[in-house]
Amino acid sequence: MNQRASGILLHPTSLPNPYPIGDLGPAATAFVDFMVESGQRWWQMLPIGPAGKENSPYRSPSAFGGNALLVSPDRLVEDGLLGRQDIELPISWGEGAVNFPAATRSKLRWLRKAFEHFEKNRHGGRQSELDAFARAESFWLEDFSLFSAIQEKEGTSDWTRWSQELRTRQPEALLRAQKYFANDIRYHQFVQWQFSVQWEELRAYCASQGIWLIGDVPLFVAHQSADVWAHPGLFKLDADGNPTVVAGVPPDYFSKTGQVWGVPVYRWEALQEQKYSWWIERLRTAFRRFDVNRLDHFIGFVRTYEVPAQAKTAVNGQYQPGGGDSFFQAVREAFGCLPLIADDLGATTPEVVALLDQLQIPGTRVLQFEFGSNLETNSVPSEQHPVKSVVYTGTHDNDTTAGWYRKLPLTQRKALRLRLRANDHEIVWAMIREALASLSDTAIFPAQDLLELGSEARMNSPGIEEGNWQWRLKHGALAEELAQKLRSISTTYGRLGTELHPTSGCQDDDTTLQIATETQGP
Length: 522
Hints:
alpha/beta; globular; disordered C terminus; four-stranded antiparallel beta sheet; 19 helices
């Protein structure tokens, strides 16, 4: 990320299409075309794994799998796995917010139908492709497919409520379950294969257009996940498999009582004993899918804020050491380089700063925070940002810039107008210009800010579980005029390169991780 460039934060679920949720279909390639027209390089997404509790992508039942709801019915039709007549399209589906219940019902029904067609017709010999995919991804796919099949049978993903022999993964019980659920296991493998096929097609198109992808790796995984069920010794659990402590953050900007995330925390000493193999495999998957990955809650790798499992608030938590230097040394040995962004927001410590300096990976700057409570005294101006950093107007956890500005006290709004030399109607684009003008190599802004949307378009409100992750683009919102406006401003601030510089990939024993593709720029 040592080239001056900019990009857009937009999760694929927010893309417009005729279905209840955005996906990897035609709208995704259309968004890439918009990025090319607007002179942007980076498409940043939220985690693309299966969504968990309250549809959160940060509480996934798998740290490795792809979200089945992102599989495009249009692509299934193009591949001959569905007929166009198989897809029912109520007129209201493609408008308004993401409808997760409708998306789950329809997408899973279509995927099951596509699988049945695939199995019945042997589909041109592609059975061998599915078999090869299952073998290549066996590290996680075997457990995830069995976990998914069992949870459908049991009616719950809370594996601590399963029968004792399955809960504790007795070998004979697992063998019986694999035979009993053989067809369901293959179905879940099929779904993950189709996600992978469609993802690789989208990524290839991005590369051909000079667009790089930024992924997001949550530090934690959900308790009700295949990962915790398959690897309980890596987490702080009691004898029944329940967390003894859960992760959170102390009182901060977002919440006066802190946040209780409810996810189990790692036993880092156990991870170290296995040479961090689970984490390395997790990053291997992330590096294959994205050019660069954001490490969510980077501070947690140095120290994790642990809260008693039954606590209602995070006021009485305490910090415990994370993997730190030992973990990242193992990652560097495995891959040779670290195509990562550190989400180092929050209460940083000298140890966090030292680790970032040692790793030489970019940290994160957020203009809404910098122009926050100390606005009257003028906080750190953008020209002082480190070159090796990523600057945002706001992230998925922030309000939109328009919504944030409207909620500022009058004195701070006045100070911001003076600082940015803008009136009320120009504030959002003035903030985008501020990000683009920064010395930071990379500037990212949410799509909502490009459209100057208010708080109704906010993606996530930390500390509030319901009503998040639902925002969606309207058809035609990313118009040609908007693309030309963004391209012009990006050019002004030197973020419109004419070509991509070839860079060497990260290599390990099995995979070359392509960090950038030499191609013509937009």
